[in-house]
UniProtKB/TrEMBL annotation:
InterPro entries in the record: Ribosomal_bL20 (IPR005813), RIBOSOMAL_L20_CS (IPR049946), Ribosomal_protein_bL20_C (IPR035566)
Gene3D superfamilies named in the record: 6.10.160.10, Ribosomal protein L20
Function text: Binds directly to 23S ribosomal RNA and is necessary for the in vitro assembly process of the 50S ribosomal subunit. It is not involved in the protein synthesizing functions of that subunit.
CDD domains, sorted: Ribosomal_L20
Protein name, UniProt field: Large ribosomal subunit protein bL20c
One Gene Ontology molecular-function label: structural constituent of ribosome
A Pfam family hit: Ribosomal_L20
NCBIfam families to which the protein is assigned, alphabetical: rplT_bact
UniProt keyword annotation of Chloroplast present: yes
Biological process terms in GO annotation: ribosomal large subunit assembly; translation
Length: 117
């Protein structure tokens, strides 16, 4: 039989995998099979952690708002603040409220006092 010279498609696929895994350590960046496995694992982790990141940031914002509100008065809590915001139909999300709580606490106190009355 005549000799078959392989094309560039397989080499192109392997170089694409190696470029993706170039920052990985050891055999995970050098060997094709382990690099492919690590690439799949990395993509699964990134997909999972995108939703986890949203969850973590929401928890952080809630904690910051709650801490800032409880400095104001002992009997006032985060849940009451959010409840009163919805009752007064003020459209402020938790991210904005957390930024206000960090940068300008007086503004947060003014907002909380307005919605109580």
């Amino acid at each position: 039989m005549t000799r078959v010279k392989r094309g560039y498609i397989a080499r192109r696929r392997r170089t694409k995998i190696r470029l993706f895994a170039s920052t990985f350590i050891g055999a995970h960046s050098r060997l094709t099979r382990t690099a492919t496995q690590q690439k799949m694992r990395a993509l699964v982790s990134s997909h999972r952690d995108r939703s986890r990141q949203k969850r973590d940031f929401r928890r952080l914002w809630i904690t910051r708002i709650n801490a800032a509100i409880r400095e104001n008065g002992v009997f006032y809590s985060y849940s009451r603040l959010i409840h009163n915001l919805y009752k007064k139909q003020l459209l402020l999300n938790r991210k904005i409220l957390a930024q206000i709580a960090i940068s300008n606490k007086n503004c947060l106190y003014m907002i909380s006092n307005k919605i109580i009355k």
